[in-house]
């Protein structure tokens, strides 16, 4: 009887707080729960939110899409820097875009040769730092190696092995690079190179993901299993999103190359 009276005494305050909690989307206390317990529930919101997301995951059937996971920064700031992980993934995407733009063009231009890497006895250098590149005609590009004549052979080899279907010819310190005709075979070859570049970028993306997951494992005995699960899930979603963007880039580039 005394317990019942105590519950009724707290009822007005409890109903108000329960209503406020419902408005904010927070978990409500049981109907006969004392106000003190409700305060405890409020302080336990992060854990209950985690449990709610976990319950949502378990309730979904196979083949159904899952809601996007968003983890509060306050819960993870001492565990992992998700912003840094995202920046690393975006850097991989930007590198793929640059590769597509620089090396995979149907029309070969002098600019396409600029960043071909040449192996010399003094190290690796972009071709445009060793030779002067110019276009003699629409069908011919000239690389003048007068300033670094000792690197002419290495530059010729780098051009030939660039994957751009180029067959340079050497005349002293002058490298003549005939511009290949835009044949169907050439277009298909470039499309294959685009696919290979995308696969390499996805491998780099997986390395970023693995690095982040390994960081989480260091906290296995320091934070809850639910928190680590949510963090791993968010990292996977970031990885999937980046991979999907790469697939879109590849599809657009393939369409451009094959016409």
Looking at this protein, list some descriptive labels:
4-stranded antiparallel beta sheet; alpha+beta; elongated; two-stranded antiparallel sheet; 259 residues
Task: Set out the fold topology.
Elements: H1 2-9, H2 11-24, H3 35-43, H4 45-59, H5 73-76, H6 82-103, H7 110-113, E1 117-120, E2 123-126, H8 127-130, E3 132-137, E4 140-144, H9 152-160, E5 169-171, E6 174-178, H10 184-217, H11 225-258
Antiparallel strand pairs: 1-2, 3-4, 4-6, 5-6
Helix pairs in contact: 6-10, 6-11, 10-11
Describe this structure in words.
This protein has helices at residues 2-9, 11-24, 35-43, 45-59, 73-76, 82-103, 110-113, 127-130, 152-160, 184-217, 225-258, and strands spanning 117-120, 123-126, 132-137, 140-144, 169-171, 174-178. It is elongated and about 70 Å long. The chain has a 4-stranded antiparallel beta sheet. It has a two-stranded antiparallel sheet with strand order 1-2. With 259 residues, the chain is an alpha+beta fold. It is built from 11 helices and 6 strands. The model is unreliable at 1-63 (pLDDT under 50). Helix 6 packs antiparallel against helix 10 (184-217), helix 6 (82-103) runs parallel beside helix 11 (225-258) and helix 10 (184-217) runs antiparallel to helix 11 (225-258). 61% of the residues lie in helices and 10% in strands.
